[in-house]
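Subject: complex prediction, re-run

Hi both,

The earlier run crashed halfway through, so I resubmitted it with identical inputs.
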Amino acid sequence: MFKIQTLNNISRNGLDRLPANLYSVANEVAAPDAVLVRSADMHKAPIAASVKAIARAGAGTNNIPVTDLSARGVPVFNAPGANANAVKELVVAGMLLAARNIADALGFVRDLDASGDLHHKVEAEKKRFVGTELAGKTLGVVGLGAIGVKVANAAYALGMRVIGFDPHMTVDGAWQLSAEVAKAGSLAELFAASDYLTFHVPLNDKTRGAFGAQALESVRPGIVLLNFAREGIVDAAALRKGLADGRIGRYVSDFPEADLLGDPRVIALPHLGASTGEAEENCALMVVDQLRDFLEHGNVRNS
Ligand code: MLT
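This time it finished cleanly. Structure:
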């Protein structure tokens, strides 16, 4: 019997793939054989010596001490691409939220006083929410992996011009693009040409602060910055400076930051990129299959 510890809620359909005659699954487990995790930070507590594998029901593994585990011979399985569609859809929503002032407009309607002439109140105020269209604007995509490619295609379908940068982009990756993605020669070139800029890279030593003081020097004034990847990819000091002097027009992110709460130029969501029933199920199924293959047959896939 394999003992599996779950550190987050994992999709039921994924857990159902673990047959009860072979697996016991619980939140609190003494000496687990494996851990199923989503975003819980595993850097904070020691990982039991009994653990033979970690399964991350998502793409990013920065919440897991992968290097230490590798040294112990413990594979970390993840689910690249399994939630890419969900993230793509939220990035499109993020661009629209910014372009059409949707968050502010919703706040205005929510706070309307129902008494009196509602129609008149709306007509008097709606000018404040006049937006811009995405069609014809340029989206810069940093990272053309599973998510970046989908975002590029969706933006193209909305009539945007798309430019991309990914030092690792292969011919195999490129065929998935239906968008005519012009390849920027450098990040500075991409920053300078973008009206909207979105990051789809993992957080690591190479990408931390990928948007920093230098990047800020090359952006188009009023650029809309989207971060649905990881906090830390956009340098906090550069972000604050850019928002203060208007070089960054809007910051749309999937990570609320304490000192930006309440800033009208910031639209922040509570890390919802992968939070759809479909994505949660896809991720859970993908990693549970890998985990079973490893625990039952010793096969290591995608670690
Ligand atoms: C990911 O890296 O895929 C996301 O952070 C998934 C999640 O929200 O759990």
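The longest helix spans residues 277-297.

- K.
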